[in-house]
Amino acid sequence: MSRTRRNFSAKFKSELVIELLKGEKDLNTIATENNIQPNLLRNWKKEFLDKASVVFDDIREDSSAMKKIFANTPSFFILSHWDMDHIAGSFAATKSFLDRKWFVPDCADACLSAQRLAKYLDLKGNLYRVERSKGRMIGKIYIGNNIIYKLYMGEKVSCDISRPNCEGIVIKYEDMNTTLLMMGDVNYASFNKAVNNYNKTLSNNVPEPLFADTLIDYLIVPHHGSKHTDYNLITENKPIIKGAKAIICCTDNEGANRPNYFHKEKLKERFNVFTTESDAKKIDYIKIQL
Fold it and tell me: Which long-range contacts (CB under 8 A, 24 or more apart) does 19-27 make?
């Protein structure tokens, strides 16, 4: 008796691969739940990653900003935390991502796939880990007299977001004309806690401002604009310090609450707000010096 060959749609394949990349379930579990062979899903994942550049080629045609971004090859990565959606960005940035240096938080509670990646990078001598013991400023990087990168480690606070998300790395870039804050998935309360902890260590230096008191020209909004970010701290009932743009990395999936309506409305009090799906052509690239 002949076996009927199953046909799988591209949508079905991509949904399963994306679920696998999230790292919440392992490959065998997803394969069993969908009645397919593990090797088949493994092949789909490989095909998905091999063809990822095609997606970005399409984006390049629509956005001069993306052309300029993908013309550069990063020499190292700073990973906010070990969620697979953040790790996947490195795959798209360069095919030689495993040969780059990675500056990362500790990954003891990351998914198994992330832990395997960390172990491999460590064996290659490319992993530089930061202990997630307390919210703080990790360090400062000066470029000349007028450019500074400030790196913070968030700290878990009362907001209902996961510990790994709270305890991620935040990058703050400042030059004479621009302040850019890249928050990863670190919520506003966790960032404020890191700033407060740092300020307690100071004697004569000028303290760092909390989020509501910071002049931020460009903000990469935390956690895809979700509700889990203590967004009332964006203004904290203080005089509004206006910025230029807040960019939410999301697909405008109202069912997933990303972006959250109230979070987005609060952002609008300080910024012109854009989402990467709806407003991709309106978001010009932000040029900073490395």
Answer: 20/45, 21/45, 21/84, 21/85, 21/88, 22/83, 22/84, 22/85, 23/83, 23/84, 23/110, 23/111, 23/112, 23/113, 23/114, 24/111, 26/112, 26/113
